[in-house]
Write a structure and sequence with these properties.
The protein is mainly alpha-helical. Helix content is 76%, strand content 2%. Helix 6 packs antiparallel against helix 8.
């Protein structure tokens, strides 16, 4: 429990409203509201006043935010074993960071989803035209499909740029070693704990959808009644992957928000250092993937099949990450 929740609990136990507590402390109701929502922290004098007012020690108000007590010979697990200076993060900065990240997560996930969905209409129209199921010419079907593909990719790029610029001012939280102000760790840990079940559910459903996306293809192979069924199964595959990836990306961004403030998971200080050393490699990798995709698509005019570059690139990125992590671990030894 962080200070904000402690104040709420003690106030309710005393049977006071926010206005009544504000009157007793000589502050505004808005100040009490900000304390209880962890948007700001009361100064030391106010904490002492609340201690006397509620009839509790200051330890009751503060101890859950001060972290665990360490016995003789014990040391904290999170130490600054790097030579870099710590970047201070205030409670207001942490709240702003959380708000911006949570707002950007579904938008960036939507951009990824649009990229995956972009070739669906092209595949459908091109295949239906070849099968004689629509009256469009080959050029018309390809033209409409490519136009929609480029529009969806353009919309996705716009989402990436706009939200990337909003997140850019907080890049230091994910890149630098942090010295978080009082209340930040407690806030992040409580928000992460409250989000745990939703994160598990969304991640599980997203992964299951990606795994099951191949089922329509297998069904069409087993039934093998018409080419139209095969085309439909490919479109369903991409749609299922798009929905699954949307859920995975959006929930992972939310989880990463809290991990970055707590310097846990992929945001420990050691991993941040490794990311700075090898981050440019990922940039080169994905630029190469885009170049390969465009080269194959334009030279072979097989937009309905060149999308396979993206899932292959995704798997390759995971392999690359494992290799770079292994190299970083060896260097530390």
């Amino acid at each position: 429990m962080i200070l904000a929740e402690t104040i709420v609990q003690l106030r309710k136990q005393a049977g006071w409203s926010q206005e009544e507590l504000a009157d007793k402390l000589g502050v505004s109701r808005q100040a009490i509201s900000k304390w209880e929502s962890a948007q700001s922290v009361p100064d030391l004098n106010r904490i002492l006043d609340m201690s006397r007012l509620f009839g509790v020690s200051t330890d009751i108000l503060l101890k859950d935010d001060l972290g665990p007590d360490f016995g003789p010979g014990e040391v904290p697990t999170e130490v600054n074993d790097t030579d870099e200076p710590l970047r201070k993060v205030s409670l207001s900065e942490a709240n702003d960071y959380i708000s911006v990240r949570l707002a950007a997560a579904p938008k960036i996930a939507l951009g990824v989803m649009l990229c995956i969905l972009s070739p669906v209409l092209l595949i459908a129209l091109s295949s239906l035209q070849e099968l004689g199921r629509i009256s469009l010419s080959e050029g018309q079907a390809a033209g409409i499909g490519v136009l929609v593909l480029m529009c969806l990719v353009g919309a996705a790029v716009a989402l990436f740029i706009i939200n990337g610029m909003k997140l850019g001012r907080f890049s230091y939280i994910q890149e630098d070693a942090l010295d978080t102000a009082y209340g930040v760790s407690g806030l992040a840990r409580d928000r992460k704990e409250n989000y745990r079940e939703r994160h598990t559910m969304m991640l599980t459903v997203g992964i299951v959808l990606c795994v099951l996306s191949c089922v329509p293809i297998f069904i069409s192979m087993i039934v093998a009644t018409s080419d139209l069924l095969t085309v439909l199964s490919v479109c369903i595959l991409l749609i299922m992957i798009a929905i699954g990836v949307f859920m995975i990306v959006s929930t992972s961004m939310v989880q990463d928000t809290y991990d970055a403030l707590l310097e846990e998971g992929d945001y420990t200080r050691q991993k941040k250092q490794a990311s700075r050393h090898y981050g440019y490699i990922y940039g080169i990798y994905w630029l190469a993937a885009v170049a390969i995709f465009l080269l194959i698509s334009f030279t072979t005019d097989s937009w309905d099949r060149s999308w396979i570059v993206w899932p292959i690139a995704g798997v390759g990125c995971g392999i690359l990450a494992g290799i770079l992590q292994g190299v970083a671990n060896r260097k530390k030894k």
